[in-house]
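Wed. Picked up where I left off yesterday with DNA polymerase-3 subunit delta. The coffee machine is broken again, so keeping this brief.
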Amino acid sequence: MVTVWSELTGQAEAIALFRAAAGFQPGASADAERATADATASGPQNQMTHSWLITGPAGSGRSNLAYAFATALLSGNPDGDDATAAQVAARSHPDLQVLTTEGVIIKIADVRETVRRSHYSPSVGRYRVIIVEDADRMAEHASNVLLKELEEPPERTVWILCAPSEADLLPTIRSRVRSVRLRVPSVADVAELLVKRNGVSAELAERAAREAQSHIGMAQRLATSAEARDRRHETLVTALNVRTVSNAVMAAARLMAIAGDDAEAITLQRDAAEREHTLRSLGIAPGQAIPPALRGQIKALEDDQKRRAKRSLRDGIDRILVDLSSLYRDVIMLQLGRTDAVINRELGGKLDEAASRSSPAETLATLDAITIARHRIEANVAPVLALEAMLVSFRRP
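Structure written out below (tokens, as returned):
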């Protein structure tokens, strides 16, 4: 039977927990409670609570699971229903509110507005559900606004926060939510999902899942876009070809260009669709000049898109660094004789050559340089400078 949980993979324990919570009825019989208490987490297994925190590594499906849980709660059915699922997917359900950001951080004004609206009574169901994607992007002052709400929440409002780990949130917030930790899905699970969802071949699905290191969203992009696969391949080959300082400088510029191309591929189509929708909603025909009175709204849209493009570029650079980590992990696996653990098998002899040009200690130093570059970029060091410094350390005679 197809349910709201059907397209989630590798999270059986978390799904069982959320299904039980969505179907929990206060005053249910003890036998019914025991029958649904088979999931993993601390505390009463099947009971509902007003605030949840879903944590897990990138690509583990945090937000997908949050929306599936929201669908189950809003429909009043542990397995959801098609009508509610369609409304949640369109973000148009009257009792669903989503707090997210296209920028680097979630603004405190947006948190305050979300908190204000959280006091509205549900329109059509038992609950009003608020999902906070990337809750780790809230600065401390914004987190404190949310904290006050979690201390004294409205009776029928449910908060679902998503973050990579509990450590990304204030301890005071962690103490007021029920945490559910997701695991990294296996390559086989992700490949099976890609075959079922996207209709790609089993071979391509396995390669995409392996190269994405089980990151579901990235695996889908690699499985469905030859351009994305080509950009990833060029990234790895560019790093392997660094021999001199000048090579490193040119390679850094090329990696920035690849990240830009990747970010543009993600945002360009969405930006065009948003602009077209906005113009249509304002009654402006294609090709018609924008009246002065409406230019402010178009300017606001363009500003939002610029912020999203900046974040998308940063995310693209981070994906490059993750791919480079997988590359040099493969190198050290080969140096240690673990040929069965290689991720980037398609590089073949290039990996063998890289493994022969350095020692395991040097490869570990390279992996450390990648980690340092990520920290520097997070600390707002100019990405191209962080990449240059990293790539200089990649040089091998």
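Quick read: The chain has three domains: 12-181, 185-224, 240-392.
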